User: Fold these one by one.
Assistant:
Number 1:
Amino acid sequence: MHTGMVASAAERRRRARNALNFYLFISPWLVGFFLLTAGPLMYSFYASLTRWTGISPPQFTGLTNFRQMFFGDDRFWRSLLNTFYFAGAEVVLTLVLSLVLARFVNRRRPGAYVFRTIFYLPSVVAGVAIFMVWAWLYDTNLGILNYLLSLIGVRGPRWLLDPRWAMPSLILMSATFCGGPMLIFLAALQEVPQEYYEAARIDGASVLREFFIITVPLISPSIFYNFVVGLIVAMQVFSEPFIMTFGGPMLATYVYGLHLYNTAFRYFDFGYASALAWILFIIILVVSLGVVVSSRMWVYYEGGAGGEKKRRKP
């Protein structure tokens, strides 16, 4: 009995030492998380309940900022609608374009690796630099796009200066940064068993039917991943309109990120900006959870549609 008690005490000491080593090794991450993420997050929630200019001490005002947001800020609703417009169109266009490019470079042909590099290159180029290049491409008088259109007798639009064309121009430009999703789709396509396509051809299936019956279901986890990540990123769009249009013309590209930025760094209303940030966080969370819940109906995993099949009890 004494030997058992000694062994038990030694085991407890060993477990305590392992736990201490574990927390010691992750302590840098824990310190960074609490100081740089959790701490600012909690303080921003407190700030959202105050009137705070960033210089003077915060004055607690309760839910005043949120009431102003929903009932007294027209630009809040305008920026939110513009953000949904941008996110919905950009994510769908990016998914379609990246999947088409992935199917193109997945085939064995000369120069396939070169094309992969070319298609992925815009994703690694510095953002501001590429935005300035696109602003030049869209230039009404000197831009190459309108020049190419003039060669076939078409008068190009005022891309970034026309309220009807400004947002579609940003969406088209953003969709060209599809290198990351393309690589994910490429990896998924290469995992699809070729035997399925061979069986479909024997049955006389067309290429289009093969795509929707075989390819899409088997790569649906990749579609789901790219869709969720793309949606989260697109809902936080800021750099493109900030660099290229600054919300114009006539607020056509005035997205939520710009409204938040202007509130904080132009009007120095950090309390209201914090409230805006929390509403954006809640919206992204709700939309993401909605997509995750709906994935049970259309995402196919190896164990069956919508997840692995549950084992039946004997």
Note: The radius of gyration is 26 Å.
Number 2:
Amino acid sequence: MPRQTPLNAIHRKLGARMVDFAGWDMPVQYAGLEKEHLSVRSDVGLFDVSHMGEIEFKGRGALEEANRLITNDLAKAADGQALYAGLLNERGGFVDDVVAYRFSPEHIFICVNASNREKDFEWMKSNAKSVKPVDRSDDYAQIAVQGPKAFGLVQRLSKQPLERIATYRFAEGAIAGVPCIVSRTGYTGEDGFELYCPPDQAERLWSALLDEGQLDGCVPAGLGCRDSLRTEMKYALYGNDIDDTHTPLEAGLGWVVKLDKAVFIGKPELEKQKSGGVTRKLVGFEMTEPGIPRAHYPIVKDGQTVGEVTSGTMGPSIKKAVGIGYVPTALSAEGATFHVEVRGKLLGARVVKTPFYKR
């Protein structure tokens, strides 16, 4: 049986189409993927992301311990700042991509992907030396409020001025009377907040946001449009675009790797790869012939399979079929052409500058 988030009953009451995602019973869509996608781009949408995991390091040495496990550098972050980062294996491949929150040098909080909750915790536990991580995943529900009207909606339900929470910053405060960690990271390309709250108050918070959001055209949004929104931005999805066999340098995520840090797991391999150069790169491309690229479709050049699509969609905001995939470095420059095998047919595609969607 798939696990349920604290908002499961609300999704069913709202008529959501539910699917098994990473062992969780999750809403894939409500009124329809395209409608929800466009509402997030123009107004605001609510996502239940309570299936994500939360892992905490607390006590003396927490900062140093957590920092040794991630590619980005918490030592250079301020208290109240969040960092996007990789957890890497010894070969430099992704164990996961995460967001690390620095409350203080004695308190680090890491949000991990739903599909990796248990794996990440075990990996952190086995690699931690002095400060052991604590799995806090069941202590939080998480609601993402995304869209150009997200700020106004959440601000009306808060007594604190939210301007102080800049992008990739966070603070603690009440939203609609519910105590929350209020974070401003996002996975859609739009402004917005992630609200971490007690599970037993998640329904109250969701309902307050949806009720107040009627002024803004707020809609509940499912995992379907979350995927199309992030694909239009070329944001990586673990298990599709990044995994334990691909490194941040191959995935175009070198900016989350701080090789000037004294140590982190996977650093020696990345140093070798940086000096030797990568042989493959993750690129964004658009179709030049009618057809929609999907994950695992072959990428073909001169009759040879040279790579594969990792994500693809017909972008509702851009009205184009676009995809993401790994290709040999020689084929990664903007304007390079190849074919994607779509249901047995070779269809033309061209590497383009990303993100595909620009406001």
Note: The radius of gyration is 20 Å.
Number 3:
Amino acid sequence: MTLAATLEQIAAEFSPAVLASSLSAEDMVLTDAIARAGLPIEVFALDTGRLHAETVSLIAEIQDRYGIAVRVYEPQAAAVQEYVRVHGRDGFYGNVELRQRCCEIRKVEPLRRALAGQRAWLTGQRREQAASRSALGFREYDPVHRLEKFNPLADWSNSQVWSYVEANRVPYNRLYDQGYRSIGCAPCTRPVLPGEDLRAGRWWWEPAAGKECGLHVAHGKLVRMKEIA
């Protein structure tokens, strides 16, 4: 089944569905496919307040290129202010718990608001991105948000993503041209060095195993499109 057909089936059977876009190359591929097919899948992004300018600029570029208004969710100002007051603006460098608390405030809580009332959410996650995602399913049930979760690019390779980007002239974050491979908040992301996995630049000061921000729960079993009905 083609990507377009997959997205059409999700939109038809699991409305309302949304794409949670981190504005990564993968999410830009999904945005392009959704726009080309004119599907009723809303695109939203989480603006943490610490994103690179190159990342934020893609929101307006999506509007200009596809005529899609990306819904933007921001963290609760009071929670951010309290974290900064107690731990400092960059307190997340202190330990894993402080970093996870920052992610909870800036990403996880806004995600809960974004997913409220939805039946399904789509992500650009891929198995190849990290060892922790090697068992990523195409379709999973998210018990935290109580909805279906789809990872349409789960089995795509990095080369497939970039071939699509190039063939369809999809806008992408120019930080990729500077060696970035997985792009999150500016103070928590660095370019990837030769031989490192694609997510090595995220929270690079922490132990390598299992680095996630809390947006995604443990992966369930693989479910193929024919199993959706």
Note: The longest strand covers residues 41-46.
